[in-house]
Amino acid sequence: MAVHPRRPSLVLHCRHLEGEPGRRGLHHADDRTRRGCSALPLPPDRAASPRSLGGVARPPGSRRQRAGCPAKGKPGRGARLSAGARAGRAAVTLADDLSLERFVEAQEPIYATALAEIRRGAKRSHWMWFIFPQLAGLGRSETARFFGIRSLAEAQAYLDHPVLGRRYIECVGGLQDLGISNPVAVFGAVDAMKLRSSLTLFEAAGPTPLFAAALDRWFGGERDPSTLQLIARP
């Protein structure tokens, strides 16, 4: 699929990503050590962000907000909101939490490539964050946080989405069609752990025999304990 001529591909800029510090082993080791993906220097005011990696919307916490300045059109810290305004803001927050456009936009230029690599049993490009997303709180890089699934409700909405749900099932089905069952051979050690986290999340979100079968085949039936702990939190 052709990349938008006026917007650089997410994949072409993946080398700018910061590493993800380890969490219980290899789950979030530095992606830069894999397959020669080295970080390139960026000016301090142009730190890697999902917008610079393919045009997706800026993650929460813009430069203006990080500096402690209120966003345009919004009251500052000292302002008081009416009950109606607070209720309206809560509704907007809920809508934002369930917004899936960040995944649709990120997948647009690379989904065909990702599916082809899965079917060949050899991941070579950089798309794990938004093809097999995992629960927010597991990854520490800005990109991992941006594409983290924020709740079980958002995971259910992802599976119900007419494009994203179909693609997720298609990708898991592509894995199941392979003649091997070693996730490290297909994804590498770091992304293999992310795959287990993703399958664990979506099995909980919408019990589908395909997800359980993939966990049984690729991970000996072991679910990701950190994902289960986060799901169980009130």
Radius of gyration: 19 Å
CATH class of the domain at 100-232: Mainly Alpha
CATH architecture of the domain at 100-232: Alpha Horseshoe
Q: What is the element string, with H for helices and E for strands?
A: HHHHHHHHHHHH
Helix and strand content put the structural class at: mainly alpha
Measured by DSSP, the beta-strand proportion falls in under 5%
How is the biggest beta sheet arranged?
Answer: none
How many DSSP-defined strands?
0
The helix fraction, in percent, is: 40-55%
What is the name of the CATH superfamily of the domain at 100-232?
Protein of unknown function DUF1810
| Count, helices | 12
Mean pLDDT metric? 73
Envelope shape: globular
CATH topology of the domain at 100-232: Serine Threonine Protein Phosphatase 5, Tetratricopeptide repeat
Keywords:
12 helices; Serine Threonine Protein Phosphatase 5, Tetratricopeptide repeat; mainly alpha; DUF1810 domain-containing protein; Rv1873-like_sf; DUF1810; disordered N terminus
If you had to describe this structure to a student in words, what would you say it looks like?
The protein is mostly helical and 234 residues long. It has a domain at 100-232: Serine Threonine Protein Phosphatase 5, Tetratricopeptide repeat (Alpha Horseshoe), CATH 1.25.40. The protein has twelve helices and no strands. It has helices spanning 63-66, 83-97, 101-107, 111-120, 128-131, 142-147, 152-160, 164-176, 183-187, 189-205, 209-219, 225-232. α7 (152-160) packs across α8 (164-176). The chain starts with 62 loop residues before the first helix and ends with a helix. Mean pLDDT is 73; it is low at 1-97.
